[in-house]
Structure prediction request, 150 residues.
Amino acid sequence: MGFIESIKEAARKTKEKAEENRKEKLRLAAELNAEKERAEQEAKEANRIKVEAKRKKLGLPQGKIYYMTYKDKGDNYSFRDIEIIKNDYKNDTLYFYAFCHLKVAIRTFKAESVIYLSCEGQKIKDPWAYINSYEEPADIAAWAADNLAE
Prediction:
């Protein structure tokens, strides 16, 4: 084998090795993504179990699940699944009680701080107006009357 042929052979082997490395990186990335997805699903399932256990402990009926983007007084954004329980005015400010799946607890939110709200994949155009006019189902209203302090 001459000098030129040996250089061509070395270049071919380098290309083959580079292709093998590229394929291995893709395989490892796919494995990592699959593991990440599995871990996320496990975390979601663990949270779902916590939510159901807390709901049972509280005796809280199942409500509609809303997805909310909320901006707190420190200008921090949070993204939560919630179940609205009831609305309430305090000092001319609209608040609402909700069962928060993130915190697995009943929380109070300021309606004007809701940036985005959707239910069953449908965006609610004016979250404040929706919350202001919200009427809880009878079973949730009865639970709220018995369990939420005025």
Q: What stands out?
A: Residues 60-147 form one domain. The mean pLDDT is 94. The longest strand covers residues 77-90. The CA atoms of residues 84 and 98 lie 4 Å apart.
